[in-house]
Amino acid sequence: MNEIFARALVLVCAGISFLLLMFCFIIYQINRKKGLISLILAVIFIAITGYYCYTTLFTSNTISDTMRCLSRPPASTTQEQPSNQITLTVETDDGNQIIVENGDALDITSDVSIKITGASQNGKPLNDIRVNVIGFTPKDNPSQNNDIGYKFSYKDMLKKFAIDEEKIVYRVEIKRSDEKLGEIYLRFVK
User: Fold this and answer.
1) Where are the alpha helices (DSSP H) in the chain?
2) Does pLDDT of 64 surpass 60?
3) Which stretches within 54-162 are classed as H helix?
4) What's the confidence (pLDDT) of residue 78?
5) 74 domain residue, yes or no
6) Which of 55, 108, 160, 171 lies in disulfide reach of 134, CB 3.0 to 4.6 Å?
7) 175 and 95 fall within a common domain
8) Which residues form the Metallo-carboxypeptidase C-terminal domain (predicted)?
9) What is the mean pLDDT of the chain?
10) Region 152-178: what's the mean pLDDT?
11) Helix axis angle, 3-30 relative to 32-53, nearest 10°?
């Protein structure tokens, strides 16, 4: 929806809310029971209008920007090659293993630590690759180029490397030498 149209619609809804409130008080003077019912309906409409006003005017559109950057290209332009499917295995601090496919996003709560345990292609482990979490540097070995085996969480991430305005989405590159094999996205949610 166009932002200008959405903001104009907010003003129209606010005007209708004001008119409903005025009619409610006029009806209340004529018939109290119908006036109370119209007051309840007016308050419900005002609450919905207030929420719409809040989402339109005061929240940024970073969610749609984030989703746009995380979405895959349309199916007509994607060349499916099931023989080259790269997956990344991620282990959470409670021992759960999550397999993430190339191009997908992984939602992680901010307080959970994760560790990338490996990568595979069609179920076969890849040994000659490196995984780089853009925005994470191991404290014990800052010059390390491979982030496989290091445990990290949202507090360990460098916010300047986030790819969205909210600083919660980070890229993970899977490379062999300098050739990029794939990437996934880590989205830290609260």
Assistant:
1) 3-30, 32-53, 62-70
2) no
3) 62-70
4) 46
5) no
6) 171
7) yes
8) 123-189
9) 82
10) 89
11) 170
Q: Would 145 be classed as within a structural domain?
A: yes
Establish if 76 belongs to a structural domain: no
**What is the average per-residue pLDDT within 70-88?**
58
- pTM of the shown model: 0.55
Q: Return all residues near 138 (Cβ < 8 A) that are at least 6 apart.
A: 144, 147, 150, 152
Verify that 132 and 170 share a domain, yes or no: yes
Query: Are 88 and 13 within one domain?
Result: no
| Phi, psi at 157, each rounded to 5° | -85, 145
- The residue assigned the tokens 């709560």 is 109
- d(CA 154, CA 160) in angstroms, rounded, equals 13
Structure-token match 């996934």, residue found: 184
Q: Supply angle C-alpha 161, 164, 169, rounded to 5.
A: 70
Which residue range forms the structural domain that includes residue 21?
3-59
- Indicate the number of domains in the chain: 2
Parallel/antiparallel/unpaired status of strands 97-101 and 169-176: unpaired
**Inside any domain, residue 68:** no
- Report strand pairing: 105-109 vs 124-126: unpaired
